[in-house]
Amino acid sequence: MDSLKEQTINDINYELFSAQQLKWHTLAKNFANQIDPDLIIRSDRDNQFYRDLFNAACHKGFGALPFENTYGGTGGDYVSFCLVNEEFGRRCVPIMSSLGVHVLCQESIYKFGTADQKAKYLSDCAKGNILAAFALTEPGAGSDTAAMETSAKLAGNNYVLNGSKIFITSGSVADIFIVFTRVEDGTAAFIVERDFKGLSIGQKFDMLGMRGYGTSEIVFSDCVVPKANLLGEFGKGRKVALSSLAKGRVTIAAQALGWARGALDGLRKVLQDDKIEHSDSQTYIIGNLLIDIEAASSLTYEAARSIDRGENNTTLAAMAKLKSTDIAMKTADCVLGLVGIEGSKPKYLIERIFRDAKAGQIYEGTNQIQRMLIARDILGDTVKV
Prior knowledge:
The chain is α+β, with helices and mostly antiparallel strands. It has 3 domains: 11-127, Acyl-CoA dehydrogenase/oxidase, N-terminal domain (Butyryl-Coa Dehydrogenase, subunit A, domain 1); 132-236, Butyryl-CoA Dehydrogenase, subunit A, domain 2, CATH 2.40.110; 239-379, Butyryl-CoA Dehydrogenase, subunit A, domain 3 (Up-down Bundle). It is built from 12 helices and 8 strands. It has helices spanning 6-10, 19-33, 37-46, 51-59, 78-90, 96-112, 115-127, 237-273, 280-308, 314-339, 350-360, 367-379, and strands at residues 132-135, 151-155, 158-168, 176-183, 186-193, 199-204, 216-226, 230-235. The protein has a 4-stranded mixed β-sheet with strand order 1-4-5-8. A 4-stranded antiparallel β-sheet has the order 2-3-7-6, with no helix packed on it. Strand 2 and strand 3 (158-168) form a beta hairpin. The protein is globular. The N and C termini lie far apart (46 Å).
């Protein structure tokens, strides 16, 4: 069993990270290890979001990790946030996706918000008093923002929103939403509070993967939004969306690395529990998977470092998201093939990771779209995202 030792599968290369980054990695590992495994299984089985667990994560500093201290941020960097997400992905921490989206929303406010908006929302977001959701996807507009139908029109001192959003992570449990609409001069972004008149929560989705995150439909029926809640410039909401999504894709890449390592961890546990000796054919498959995982890790953390350098490398983010989610799916699929029916037992998390990894290939820009983005960087073609 030496080739399947836990440190070979799960531990990072410590030489590549600073002491402060490793501190966050250790905090994330300890936090995840203290979660009752039965709670992880129940969250998936019952499609249940645990707000108390989310609040606990925020109190540890994970809820505003990559932001400055001014508004309650923890002052960490994006590499640290990716290390946290990798650990949370490996253990299928029930709040992982909601936490990632929560930080994505704060990123939009930090970069494009007014001083009043930052003061009103960011400190409470950091503490977990406010949970934020990113409302972009529509029934007919996923990766193509130009196809959005949700509209906003100015009426006196307010904007009036009409339309709907679909598959919104944390949608049924969020307190505020970063909402994107079409307007006459392009697109616009708004900070919409849950209790604004005209906003309602539609159906909660009972999906194959990425369960337990309160994913739902959001409906706007003459929803009244104060002018003060316009985020960024009117007509340039697409800029807000794309700026945030590039970082979001790197976060997903880190989560997917965790899924891949978690699937191999599940394989190790099955072999240990059943006292099965691995075969030469198994080690050949595992060896190839580990090579692919390390390649994806290199892309992911280089993308995270580019964010910390202040670069806007959307192509590198696309590569990281594509490579990591594809290898997570491949790893989960191979592990299920190796362990057979044992892999369907929830306690090993393998079948959970298989379902989540498939979702990872789809959301925040499908992997087909990522390939188009990467090609456009070379060819200069126009691709709508």
